[in-house]
Design a protein that fits this description.
By secondary structure, the protein is of the alpha+beta class. It has 5 helices and 6 strands; from the N terminus they run H-E-H-E-E-E-H-E-H-E-H. Helices cover about 35% and strands about 30% of the residues. Strands 1, 2, 3, 4, 5 and 6 form a 6-stranded mixed beta sheet that branches. The radius of gyration is 16 Å and the shape is elongated.
Length: about 150
């Protein structure tokens, strides 16, 4: 099933993945902060934070309208500041989860056009220490392209 560029579908795609991995899911701007995340009812580690994307509309001139979502998603866990081994293991676990997400995105890209993405150019960076405190994990940047004919034409 092709995912359309409807913003609700975008959020639901990642929320469904996080839920299937038994991870707490949060959507919103990172300026909300870690304390916002851990204060939510039902919060657990590791958790997934889907950031607000930038969305660029495209028209190829041949009747194909696209919404290109440039976004970021982080998988974050907690480890004591004085336990480097636990910090590294938390980062390892987060990386494995992000790679599983990339695998899903790649498979969905191949499956009858569920979404349009490429692994090339996806960038992973460690979560920002200044923002994350005693939280550890990885952030994945990506571009997803969805059909927008039904929305923009």
């Amino acid at each position: 099933m092709l995912i359309t560029a409807d913003f609700e579908n975008y959020i639901a795609y990642f929320q469904s993945w996080a839920t299937s991995q038994d991870m707490f899911f949060l959507y919103g701007g990172v300026e909300l902060g870690i304390q916002y995340a851990i204060s939510k009812e039902g919060f657990t580690y590791p958790f997934v934070w889907l950031e607000q994307p930038e969305i660029i509309s495209e028209d190829n001139g041949a009747g194909q309208l696209i919404e290109a979502y440039y976004g970021g998603i982080s998988v974050i866990g907690s480890a004591p500041l004085d336990d480097r081994s636990a910090q590294v293991q938390t980062e390892i676990n987060a990386m494995r989860l992000l790679q599983a997400l990339q695998k899903k995105m790649r498979q969905d890209n191949r499956a009858k056009g569920v979404l349009d993405c490429t692994i090339s150019g996806m960038k992973k960076t460690a979560v920002d220490r200044g923002w994350a405190g005693d939280h550890w994990g990885w952030r994945l940047e990506f571009e997803l392209r969805f059909t927008a004919n039904g929305l923009l034409s």
